[in-house]
Amino acid sequence: MTSALRKPAPGTHPNLLHPAYASTVARAPTQSLLALPQGPGELSGPRFDASVLYKSHDDLTRQCAGEPLGERIILSGRVLDDNGDPMPNTLLEVWQCNSAGRYHHHRDQHDAPLDPNFTGNGRVLTDAEGRYTITTIKPGAYPWRNHPNAWRPAHIHFSLFGTSMLQRLITQMYFPGDPLLGYDPIFNSVPSEKARERSIARFDWNLTKPEWALGYEFNFVLRGSEATPAN
Amino acid sequence: MSEINTPSQTVGPFFHYGLKWEPGEHLFPDAKTPGRRIVLTGTITDGQGAPVPDAFLELWQPDGSGRFGAPVPGSCAGWGRVFTDNDGRYTANTVLPGALGKQAPHILVVLFARGLLRQLITRVYFDGEAANAGDAVLASTGARAATLLARPEGAERYV
Known about the structure:
The complex is a heterodimer.
Chain A: H1 24-27, E1 72-81, E2 91-95, E3 121-125, E4 131-137, E5 142-144, E6 150-152, E7 155-160, E8 169-174, H2 193-198, E9 202-203, E10 214-217, E11 220-222
Parallel strand pairs in A: 1-10, 1-11
Antiparallel strand pairs in A: 1-4, 2-3, 2-7, 5-6, 7-8, 9-10
Chain B: H1 16-19, E1 37-43, E2 55-60, E3 71-72, E4 75-76, E5 79-83, E6 89-95, E7 106-113, E8 120-126, H2 136-140, E9 149-150, E10 152-153, E11 157-158
Parallel strand pairs in B: 1-11, 8-9
Antiparallel strand pairs in B: 1-6, 2-5, 2-7, 3-4, 7-8, 10-11
């Protein structure tokens, strides 16, 4: 069990009702939220070991018989708490569409080809310094029916556990310089510009592998303990 | 000075293959886990009463003796993930959780769905538990306390 967690700064997380994202209108709670105390259940959470990892869990380009189409990328970074302390041995789950902008999902009916060599899901545990690395292909943009001519910017979905249920985070990572970011109601549901910038990866020459793949750095920051850490 | 947190974003509609979890609806695969075996089931509906077919719940609870779990092969004891079906229904197999100090037995439940830009977190308590009367969280919810109670349906099912 961890000690009490700090509240995120105002504007860090989206409001549940954000009419520009049409699905929130019916699904945002109609009654006011009540604050839960940070009890033993809230301040603990599941721990996972390497038995949850599957074949090619961190290389999404090698899970099928052949190689997927698209621009190969290496994505790496650290999971930290908001005190700047690394979060080792924490589970990340990742999923994304293929390079043409189509998810390997029966409900995705976008008229773009499926890639028989790309499923688009992975899992990885952070190392002792909170670091993770995955290899994948850059996902494509795709249209959605939120409003006329609506397009999602390229993004990768991430799910993180941290060490307690109150650190649980599901988010989307975007790519720098994407012209669609300014038009996307989901990205722009985050009120704070600094927090929105937090969800954009950074192109990183040092991670780039010559003749192989471009590199991007993306760090995650989860809620940290309110108490001043003892030295 | 603390660092700004990574913002939450919706899980979207296409999460099933990315978040599939094989023992997800069995919180305690070990048959020797202390506690009475129960099935927790229910429906997720939106603010207009329509079922939500693209949602999932994560559940976290201690075993029947009030102890939180450790990793088990392929998962973690006391944690589960269940997806809603086309009618918005979910089902989880677990044990009745033990009490935690003065808190009545409850399961922590986190809800994710398309259209939710961040998760909702709540507790499920069990109707008829004597300890409910002394639980400060239940008391603090006033008239809405009934919305946190799972009701028995036969000997082993709670709805």
